[in-house]
Specification:
about 180 residues; mainly alpha; 3-stranded antiparallel sheet; two-stranded antiparallel ribbon; 6 helices
Length: about 180
C-alpha cells in the first residue's frame, strides 16, 4: 500500500483521520516513532524516501488503535489537532537535521583535503548540495502548510521562536529559505 501524503495531510486539515492500514476513518489515531522497516508503509511523511521499504530511519507512524495493536506499535492517541502539531514538530526535526547536515555534518561523508576544509558543501559536492537543497525546500514548503493551517484554525503555533532561530542559522550560513528573512 502506498500512502498519498497530499490526501493524508488534507484529511488532517479537514479533521478526518484515516488509518493507512485498514483505510477506515477514526476520531483518533495512535502516533509513535519506529525504525522497523515493516512499518514504513504506514509512515505518511516517509513516502519519498530514496531507501524505500529498506529504510531503518526513525519514522512517525500513525495507525488506528486496533491496527497499532496488531502491528505491536505502542503509541499515544491523537486527534486531528494533535496530529497536525505532531507532523509539524516532526517536519521541524527533519529541517533541523537538514540544516545540521549542510552546516557541518556533510564533512563526515567525504575524504576532504586541507583545502576542502574551508569550503562549503556547494563547492565540494555540488550535486549533493543540490539534492540537499531540494529536500530542504520540500520540507520548508511542508512546514509552511502546517503553519498556515494553524493560522486558519486560529491556534497558536507551537514553540513559535523555532522558526526565527532556524532562519537565523540558515542565513548565517549564507543560504536562502522560504521561512522568512
Amino acid at each position: 500500500m502506498q500512502i498519498n501524503w497530499e490526501e493524508t495531510i488534507n484529511q488532517i486539515f479537514e479533521d478526518r483521520l484515516t488509518c493507512p492500514r485498514c483505510s477506515k476513518d477514526h476520531p483518533e489515531l495512535m502516533v509513535a516513532y519506529s525504525r522497523r522497516p515493516t512499518l514504513n508503509r504506514f509512515a505518511p511523511r516517509h513516502k519519498d524516501c530514496p531507501r524505500g521499504d529498506e529504510c531503518e530511519a526513525r519514522k512517525l507512524i500513525t495507525l488506528c488503535e486496533a491496527c497499532a495493536g496488531e502491528e505491536r506499535l505502542p503509541g499515544s492517541p491523537a486527534d486531528a489537532d494533535q496530529m497536525l502539531e505532531t507532523y509539524m514538530l516532526d517536519c521541524r526535526r527533519d529541517l533541523e537535521d537538514a540544516l545540521d547536515y549542510i552546516a557541518d555534518l556533510w564533512r563526515d561523508d567525504f575524504e576532504l583535503t586541507t583545502e576542502d576544509l574551508s569550503q562549503g558543501l556547494e563547492e565540494v559536492a555540488p550535486e549533493v548540495f543540490k539534492d540537499e537543497s531540494i529536500w530542504r525546500d520540500r520540507l520548508e514548503t511542508e512546514y509552511l502548510r502546517y503553519h498556515l493551517e494553524f493560522r486558519a484554525r486560529q491556534r497558536r503555533i507551537p514553540h513559535p521562536g523555532w522558526r526565527a532561530e532556524y532562519v537565523e542559522e540558515l542565513r548565517a550560513l549564507g543560504y536562502d529559505t522560504q521561512l522568512g528573512d
